[in-house]
Amino acid sequence: MASKDTVSARAFAPAHITGFFEVHDHTDPVRKGSTGCGIVLNEGVETTVTIGEAIEETVISLNCKHVAGSTSRTVVEMLTDRPVKVESIAHIPIECGLGASGAGALGTAYALNRILSLDLTANKLNEVAHVAEVRNRSGLGDVVAQSLGGAVIRTSPGAPGIGSCDRIPTGKSDVFCIVLGRLPTSSVLGNEEAVKSINTAGKTAMKRLMVRPSIENFMTCARDFSIGTKLANEKITEIIDAVEAAGGMASQAMLGNTVFAIGTNGKDAEIEEILSCFGQVLHYRISPGSIRMI
After folding, report:
1. Which of 119, 222, 263, 271 has the most crowded CB, counting CB atoms within 10 A?
2. Which among 47, 157, 28, 17 has a CA at the least distance from the CA of 109?
3. CATH of domain 1-294
4. What is the pLDDT of residues 198-219, one digit of tens each?
5. Euclidean distance between CA atoms 56 and 76, whole angstroms
6. Helix, strand, coil tally for the chain in percent (to 5)
7. Parallel, antiparallel, or unpaired: how do β-strands 151-156 and 85-90 relate?
């Protein structure tokens, strides 16, 4: 809780799972980004920003532990020269393909806007978070989707307000995840050969999705993308095959060592049971909501 000489503001930003994507480079970070498709979840990251005379330097913490927090720190530096305390609590796994860095950056931007009375629009705050992600190679398209909610198709690259998006109409479908370990986004985005393979497969996936933009087709395109790019290792492929054998649909969260699955024809219970054979099952829902002040 803030002391008498400090003031705090808190914001929530949702998780996002990308199913497939294509990288679009640009010298201007506002116009750099990705196209592709993904789903926004009901859980995410809560971020509290505190200001006060006793705070002499900017400190970032995640789940009560001090971290470098490069992406969130960049957001702070873009919006103020005042030292602040940024405390994020993640209700999702970190560095596992669920857009945690983007959610933290968005929460930081929105909380700073409130506490410092910056009076910036949503598009401007989203742009700041997007640029921070791009500069730190922690993401390319999560912020765009997280600013909208639902099942988001990113049809042209760039920050919110620059790039264009569409959405697949969907309800609050159940989403089940198995996390096999961490995979920093920068480790893949910094590999030129991997990016070439991703871009070829991502372009194909987008064309296939737009022929029939449904959640089921999205999952099929995402599965083929993860296997075709060889981003899916043997364990991930084994889990995907097991889910499909039970009548469900599964793929790999991009970019992360995580499998996500949805049930079809009322097979949620069967899918969750199959996944439980491989580890702890995390249960989410597709959420039409977006960023909010708490």
Report:
1. 222
2. 47
3. 3.30.230.120
4. 999 999 999 999 999 999 999 9
5. 14
6. 35, 30, 35
7. unpaired
Residues pairing with 37 in the sheet:
20, 153
- Model confidence pLDDT, tens digit, residues 53-75: 999 999 999 999 999 999 999 99
Q: What are phi and psi of 120, to 5 degrees?
A: -90, 150
Q: Distance (Å, rounded) from C-alpha 143 to C-alpha 148?
A: 9
- Number of C-beta neighbours around residue 211 at 10 A: 8
The pTM (predicted TM-score) of the whole model is 0.94
Q: In what order do the strands lie in the sheet with 249-252?
A: 249-252, 257-262, 174-181, 282-285
pLDDT tens digit string along 97-106? 999 999 999 9
Strands 33-52 and 151-156: antiparallel
CA distance 260 to 212: 21
Domain range annotation of the chain: 1-294
